[in-house]
Amino acid sequence: MNYLKIIICTLLFTVLFASCKQHEEARRPLSRASGTFMKKSADRNKKLVANEEEVIKKIIKSNPKVKYYATRKGYWFSYDERNLNETQTPRRGDIAYFNLEVKDIKGNIIYSETDLGPQTYFVDKQDIMMGLRDGIKLMHKNETVTFLFPSHIAYGYHGDNNKIGPNESLMCTVTLRNFVPDPATPKTAVPAGQSADTQASAGQTPKPATAKPVATKPVAPIKKDTVNP
Fold first, then answer.
1. Which residue, among 170, 199, 180, has the nearest Cα to 109 in the 3D structure?
2. Are 169 and 148 in contact (CB under 8 A)?
3. How far is the CA of 43 from the CAs of 39, 89, 144, 163, in angstroms?
4. Fewest Cβ atoms closer than 10 Å to its Cβ: which of 85, 100, 144, 190?
């Protein structure tokens, strides 16, 4: 009887061991497949970006009269109207007021200025298209700029779930009407020890200094001259 129990236990152990080994071996191809998929996806994205950039460069070459500027972020822009009298550009926290027209890369209108209406944007504090987020900070007041955005800094592989399709390069024309500091942003205090002259040179109005009470010192007794009494 004991011998029969030993045989049964041995068989059960063998079955469990074989089952675990098969489960372990079955999981290995999944990790390999996952790594292969990631590599193929990365290669596909690189090829997609290269193809879009090639199309944009052909558009630039086909318009030799228009001066385009390349940026480090991977997009291009040209000036329709340039304002050389201004030096300031929008900074983080400013409120930018602008008009926007969106076209596909062939120049067909997707959203007109009328469709979109006047735009208000809190610089670097709102979620907007990545290309516009960076491009607006290059502009001066009363300038109109046309941007050529590859899809990876536009609406990417999902589009805008409306008129802009997946992986679509865009041509965006922006007119920056104005930008002002956010009134809700606290003003920076003047560092201690900064003089009024320094404030004035920085374009700030110095505040009048508050007169401090002068402490009265006791009069010291007059000492006699020991040489000439």
1. 170
2. yes
3. 6, 37, 36, 27
4. 85
Beta pairing partners, 170: 104, 149
| Distant-in-sequence, close-in-space partners of 204: CB < 8 Å, separation ≥ 6 | 190
Task: Give the sign of the dihedral formed by CA 103, CA 129, CA 96, CA 90.
Answer: negative
State the DSSP string of 125-168: TS---HHHHHHGGG--TTEEEEEEE-GGGTTGGGTTSSSS-TT-
Q: How far apart are CA 153 and CA 59, in angstroms?
A: 18
- Residue 60's φ and ψ, nearest 5 degrees, are -65, -45
Neighbouring residues of 80: CB distance < 8 A, sequence distance ≥ 6: 144, 145, 146, 173
Note whether 78 and 149 are within 8 A (CB).
no
Q: How far apart are CA 43 and CA 131, in angstroms?
A: 23
Share of the chain above pLDDT 70, in %: 66
Buried b (16+ CB within 10 A) or exposed e, 41-52: eeeeeeeebeeb
Alpha-carbon distance 170 to 177, whole Å? 22
The chain-wide mean pLDDT, for the chain, equals: 80
Q: State whether residue 34 is helix, strand or coil.
A: helix
Q: CA quadruple 213, 219, 220, 224: dihedral positive or negative? A: positive
